[in-house]
């Protein structure tokens, strides 16, 4: 949030100490609020996806979810008279929309056909390590030896989960799909950072979601035909995912990325699996296996090392 110069000066003249502290703390408060919003809404998306997949295919769900998000954001953009993106930025925005929404959601939805909501959230949490790696390569956000060891542990933890199912070590194609979704959303998170210097979080998220929805239109006919065959509660779950985990959570996440380093922002995503497991347990009665939990512990130990900077 920005303030015009005259207002800023007037407040400093009247009460320099209190207002300076207020202005300094306001961005921190907004960042914390945005982190909480993103974590809660994204955590709730994992069990909601499992519910919706009982009636829709992965591609149908992805299309309907982001058509809902797009309509919501278009209405907001028209009310606020949001400007169009710069021509030179359109190719990058289109790429980020494709990989961050089209590829990510199709892979995640397809993976959750066979992977529980809690375990999917554990795998997605490995993006913390991937984001740290990409931030180091693109933005020179350097990690020390312990940080790189943490990235490796994140990958090992994902591998443990990928070969665990029903308490035994087995190959699971679903977890591989979720991990591909993790790579996609990690690229989306890191590459968008320079664009957030020119666009607000709301503007960029609107452009990216519209681009991602455009690529999902290939699955529109089948999805539209399926709506009438699905019960109201499932359709309400899809609408919820489109507005809250879809539009609002991504706006909050872009705001966080615009305010703090990518590796630091990514570290907070470690909270998502805990929240998702609680929601999935209460909503779906899903209890993860012991081996999967061990993989999750390895991931979180890796996350700890990534953020333990000397």
Give structural attributes:
disordered N terminus; 310 residues; mainly alpha; 14 helices
Summarize the structure.
This protein has 310 residues and is mainly α. 77% of the residues lie in helices and 1% in strands. The chain has 14 helices and 2 strands.
Structure description:
The structure is a single chain. The chain is mainly alpha-helical and 310 residues long. The protein has one domain (28-143, 170-284). Helices cover 77% and strands 1% of the residues. It is built from 14 helices and 2 strands. It has helices spanning 5-14, 16-52, 58-80, 90-111, 117-124, 127-139, 145-162, 173-191, 201-216, 220-227, 232-259, 262-267, 271-284, 290-307; strands spanning 164-165, 168-169. It has a two-stranded antiparallel ribbon with strand order 1-2.
Walk across the major sheet and give the strand order.
1-2
Shape summary: globular
Tally of domains: 1
Query: Using DSSP, what is the number of strands?
Result: 2
Structural class: mainly alpha
Percentage of residues in DSSP E strands? under 5%
**N to C succession of SSEs:** HHHHHHHEEHHHHHHH
The number of helices is 14
Query: What is the residue-mean pLDDT, rounded to a whole number?
Result: 80
Residues in helix, %: over 70%
Largest sheet: 2 strands, antiparallel
Span between termini: 32 Å
Low-pLDDT windows of residues:
1-23
Radius of gyration: 20 Å
Secondary-structure blueprint:
Blueprint: H1 5-14, H2 16-52, H3 58-80, H4 90-111, H5 117-124, H6 127-139, H7 145-162, E1 164-165, E2 168-169, H8 173-191, H9 201-216, H10 220-227, H11 232-259, H12 262-267, H13 271-284, H14 290-307
Antiparallel strand pairs: 1-2
């Amino acid at each position: 949030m920005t303030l015009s110069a005259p207002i800023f000066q007037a407040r400093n003249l009247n009460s320099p100490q209190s207002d300076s502290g207020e202005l300094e703390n306001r961005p921190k408060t907004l960042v914390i609020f945005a982190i909480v919003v993103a974590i809660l809404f994204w955590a709730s998306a994992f069990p909601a996806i499992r519910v919706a997949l009982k009636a829709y295919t992965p591609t149908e769900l992805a299309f309907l979810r982001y058509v809902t998000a797009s309509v919501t954001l278009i209405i907001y953009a028209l009310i606020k008279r949001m400007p169009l993106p710069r021509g030179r930025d359109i190719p990058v925005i289109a790429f980020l929309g494709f990989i961050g929404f089209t590829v990510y959601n199709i892979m995640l939805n397809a993976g959750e056909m066979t992977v529980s909501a809690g375990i999917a959230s554990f795998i997605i949490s490995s993006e913390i390590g991937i984001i740290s790696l990409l931030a180091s390569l693109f933005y020179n956000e350097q990690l020390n030896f312990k940080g790189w060891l943490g990235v490796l542990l994140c990958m090992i933890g994902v591998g443990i989960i990928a070969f665990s199912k029903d308490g035994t070590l087995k190959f699971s194609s679903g977890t591989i799909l979720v991990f591909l979704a993790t790579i996609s959303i990690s690229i989306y998170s890191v590459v968008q950072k320079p664009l957030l210097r020119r666009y607000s979080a709301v503007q960029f998220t609107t452009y990216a979601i519209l681009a991602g929805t455009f690529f999902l239109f290939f699955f529109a006919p089948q999805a539209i035909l399926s709506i009438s065959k699905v019960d109201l509660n499932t359709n309400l779950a899809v609408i919820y995912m489109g507005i809250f985990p879809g539009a609002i959570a991504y706006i909050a996440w872009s705001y966080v990325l615009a305010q703090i380093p990518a590796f630091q922002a990514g570290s907070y995503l470690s909270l998502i699996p805990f929240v998702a497991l609680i929601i999935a347990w209460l909503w779906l009665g899903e209890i993860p296996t012991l081996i999967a939990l061990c993989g999750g512990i390895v991931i979180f130990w890796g996350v700890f090392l990534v953020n333990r900077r000397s």
